[in-house]
Amino acid sequence: MRKSFSMLALAAAAALAMAGCGDGGQTESTGDPSANGTTDTSDTAVHLTVGVSPVPHGSILRFVQENLAAEAGLDIEVVDYQDYILPNRALDEGDLDANYFQHQPYLDSQVAEYGYEFFAFPGVHIEPLGVYSSKVKSLDEISDGAKIGLSNDPANQARGLRLLEGAGLIKLKDTGGADPTISDLADDTPIKVDLIQVEAKLLAVNLPDFELSVINGNYAIEAGLSPSKDALLLEPGADNPYANFLVTTQDRANDPALVKLNELLHSPEVKQFIADTWTDGSVIAAF
Which domains does the chain have, with CATH numbers? Predict the structure, then answer.
C-alpha cells in the first residue's frame, strides 16, 4: 500500500509562519488595555486576552463579550489564530491569558511534545469531524487507489482514522491503546487507499485534490461546508471525547477572572446561542 505525505503543508508553512509573526489574526479589544487580567476591582473590568480559532470559538467568545462579560466584570480581547500551533505557544509565552480552540487529545499531544504546563476547564462545545468530497456522492464509490486527505497533527489524524475505520473504509492494526497513524493500516484493510497528511486548515481549501478529506468542523464551516448537509460521514456528538474547552496555564487554574469566564461559557445563554446559530448541528453544546 502506498502511504503518501503531502507537500501541501510545506507550501503553506512559510505563509503561516509569517502570519504568526504578525498580529496572529484579527483582534477585537475594548476596555483598558493596561489591565493585567489578574486583579479585579469593584469599578474596573478585568481585561483578558484569549486566543481562538475564528469559527466557532471566536463567534462564541464574542457573544460572551458582547452580552455577558460586562455584567460579570470582564473585558475580553479576542485574538483569532488561523492554525493550531500558535495559540498554545502564545499562551505559554505569556501573550495570552487563555485560549479556546482545542480538545483533550490534541492538548495531550501538545503537552507531550512541548512540555506545556496547562490547565483545561470542562468542555464547551463539540464540532463533529466529517468526511467530505467534491468528487463522489457516496462512500460506496471509493475504490483502490483513492486519495484521502487527513490532518497531519497526531490527535486529529488518529480521530480521522478511527472515523474511517468505523465506516469500513480501512482497517487499523492494534496499537495497544496508542493513537493510530497512517502507518498503522492493517495489511488486510478493505480498500487500498492512499492516505495523505495535510495541514488541517488546508484540507477544506484543497478538497478537489482528494476523493475524500476528513475535515475538522471549524475549517469546514469556514469553507462554507455544512457538516450535517455536506458530509458523507459525520462523527456522532453523543459521548464525544473531543469537546473543545478553555485552557490556561497551571498557575492560573483558580484565577477568579478565568473561572468566571468559564462559567459564562457554560451559561444557558451560550448554550442557546450555539443551538440558534448552528441549526444544522455542525456545532453542539457539550454541557
Answer: 3-9+129-234 (3.40.190.10), 45-126+241-285 (3.40.190.10)
Tell me the per-residue pLDDT of 169-228, one tens digit each, with 9 for 90 and over.
999 999 998 999 999 999 999 999 999 999 999 999 999 999 999 999 889 988 999 998
Nearest to 41 by CA among 18, 9, 73: 73
**Helices of type H across the chain:** 8-21, 59-67, 86-92, 104-114, 154-166, 200-205, 217-222, 227-230, 256-265, 268-277
- At 172 the three-state DSSP class reads strand
CA distance 209 to 185: 22
Is 214:232 a contact under the CB 8 Å cutoff? Answer: no
Report d(CA 221, CA 158) in Å as an integer. Answer: 21
Q: Tell me what pLDDT residue 43 has.
A: 62
For residue 68, give the C-alpha cell: 455577558
Q: What is the dihedral of CA 6, 17, 82, 136, to 10 degrees?
A: -10
Neighbour-count burial of 41, counting CB atoms closer than 10 A to its CB (0-12 exposed, 13-18 middle, 19+ buried): exposed
